[in-house]
Amino acid sequence: MDEKEEIEGILAQAGINHWGIASFQKTLPLLECRNRSRLPADAQSVIVCLLGYYAGERPHNISRYAWARDYHLLVQELLSPVVDRMKARWPGQEFVFFTDNSPIREVTAAYLAGLGFVGKNGLLVSPAYGTYHFIAEIVTGLWLEPSAPVQEGCGDCRRCLDACPQKALSPAGVDKSRCRSHITQKKGELTLWEEEQIQKGGLAWGCDICSDVCPYNHPPKPADIPAFCQGLDGLIQEEDLPRLLKEKAFGYRGQKVLQRNLRIIKRKPSGSGTEIGE
Fold this sequence. Notes:
The chain is of the alpha+beta class. The chain is about 30% helix and about 10% strand. The chain is built from nine helices and eight strands. The strands form three sheets. The protein has a four-stranded antiparallel β-sheet with strand order 1-2-6-3, sandwiched between helices. A two-stranded antiparallel ribbon has the order 4-5. A two-stranded antiparallel ribbon has the order 7-8. A hairpin with a 5-residue loop joins strand 4 (about 115-120) and strand 5 (about 125). The chain is globular. The relative contact order is 0.18.
């Protein structure tokens, strides 16, 4: 049994069935973040894991990825024993995992690891889970043969570009100032136009439109790790926030942002704001 087969077995024990290998050098340049200091000094390989989170349909006022427990915690619980097994198998080698707060450009790494292609919405589009997935990486000094990137792509499809209400998506990339998901995460006072975007979107956190219209999500591929389908809270209220802020991915943003957004989506529609132009 070679090293990749052994890694496959270790990941399968954790329920991780969609993964690949990227060359660490090809994922450069790194992102500026505190976690850069955790990278192995002799990093050579990135084991990239895809974790599906689609948990079916239900009434909701927050983005799908935030329904279950905070995915940072779920990934930690999932990958901590995985890296322990790898360290036991390859003594002296470092194995360090990341998700989201990663110095690795995750979408790039997942593409290089053969797990999908970069969509026009900037997300990784995966044959396994469409865009309903989290990306996690295990960086190691162990050299592993890299996977081959997939050759698929969006082609002429424009569904996400055409569906984005305020044209935050274009062939040039994502304009965060027009992205409803980004607006729901902003602190402090919002412009009238920004408040209207939250109200029209109806979500107090995030926006799923570009994912929901993607052909690779039709039909959606259900999560195959039970933890991502448990403890779901899709429809939240202000009185729920003290509990939810401790449990959900939006907790880092604090109570004031979520309170503001929940109050905005409950308001009656007002006149049209034009600070950013229609």
